Amino acid sequence: MDWSSLPPLTALRAFAAYADTGAMAEAGARLNVSHAAISQQIKGLEEHLGLTLLDRQKGAGALTPDGRALADAVLGGFADIAGLCAELTGRDADRPVQISTTPSFAAGWLMPRLADFRDRHPEISLMIDPSPELRSLTPGGIDMAVRYGSGTWPGLDSTLVVETPIVIAAATELVGDDEYASPAELTKFHWLQELGTNEASEYLARYGAVLDKARGLTSLPGNLMIEAARAGQGVMVCAGSFVAADVAAGRLRILFEDRRKKGYFLVNRPGALRPAARALHRWLLAEARTDRSAKK
Fold this sequence. Notes:
Number of strands: 10
Largest sheet: 5 strands, mixed
Shape: elongated
Mean pLDDT: 86
Structural class: alpha/beta
Strand order of the largest sheet: 2-1-3-10-4
Low-confidence stretches: none
């Protein structure tokens, strides 16, 4: 990196404070300087870069496209620095441990076991984000996530938690006992998929099939999707391990399996986790090992 090409840090702080607050006076108050000092620093930054960062014709708070792009980068960078410093110094020790996971994993695997963690660590607060979206793992934000895939996410460490194929499953009362040669034959049924994903259409596309719009598609949280499938409301795509008990009890029937991806992985940023997050990380992996031993 060419450090000499970077703008002065003081100017970047002033600009970031202004972009964050939208007002010179409030930005000055945040940095304990006058609003005139903030204005002067931003003008100096514009001269350094040879760019116009503030759209002064539109009034207070308005940024040009270049200004908005720089603001996003600078605010994100300062937030990462502040978050990491808080982790390293222990100032965020009381902040809840945040974990992101899919609703189906949260309902089918994590929640039934979580009482054990609470018994072991009653002092640790948790924040569970059940979303199918891939959340960013940043200092001061989400500490770790559970993701389905093959175990490779650039820039992140990953450890297998649950090895399971993706399956097509449905209630026997819906699909009967017939054998189906291809998933394409299942398009005559209504389909269910986890909210926020395209799993049903993507699975069928691999077999040259598309969903029948006349039969419809319902997207809903993973735990509700499994409940709907048990009730015979449609064919679903899900992780096989989450319906193993239903299959054994005869409530659901697995029609097809896809083993190309390995399963659910616990992912986190490289480096040492803060103590509370490390406790949850260790407990999750211990639970995973216990599960695998029990299945042997």
